[in-house]
Amino acid sequence: MKTAIDLYHDVKFEHEYGDTYIAKGSFGSCRQRTYTKTGRTVVIKKMVGKLDSINRKELEFAAVNPHRNIVPVLGYIILPDDEEIYLFMENGGDALSSFNAQTKQYLAGQFLNIMRCCLEAVGHLHHNGYLYLDAKPANTLINIRADGTCNAKLCDMGSLFEVLPIVLDNPITASDEQQNDNTLVPPPATSGRGTESMMGD
């Protein structure tokens, strides 16, 4: 178990590790690191800016409410004087956005499993009272094993939005559904960052 001093050394002496940068954006940057002593590979997300603007659920949700299809958080360190936060996460695999016909591909059966994993992760978030507003291929990590089996995990919980339980005045029952004429009624149109991001990618 790493202490706060260990984490401080890890982020302030990054040149010692030969990190590979994998993403960069307005939030900061993400880099991949392999510790030579243990062989363990982690992803370190550096977030910069006003600390009160950071959604602390990104730091804590996966640790408090773990799920096999959400990338685990291994630890974090906040440096208030530098206005920096470093989030240490498990290496969940390759981003779905990096898959294409020319390089990395997945099979139809693997795609179904990817979708199942994503839905189970979103269901876990809903069960705990949160909406995930940043669903997109870049935040979906894929790990395809040598035997062809694959697993998917969602990352970046910085967009989690807490919602209150919805109580229906007239809840729908199974008998109500059976009386329906089987006409499909679309749900209300949704808008927001998650929908736009998914379509944009």
UniProtKB/TrEMBL annotation:
Name listed for the protein in its UniProt record: Uncharacterized protein
Leader peptide range in chain numbering = none
Q: What does UniProt give as GO cellular component?
A: nucleus
Under Gene Ontology molecular function, one entry of this record is:
protein serine/threonine kinase activity
PROSITE patterns recorded = PROTEIN_KINASE_DOM
A GO biological process of this protein is: mitotic DNA damage checkpoint signaling
Give the region (Disordered) as residue ranges.
175-201
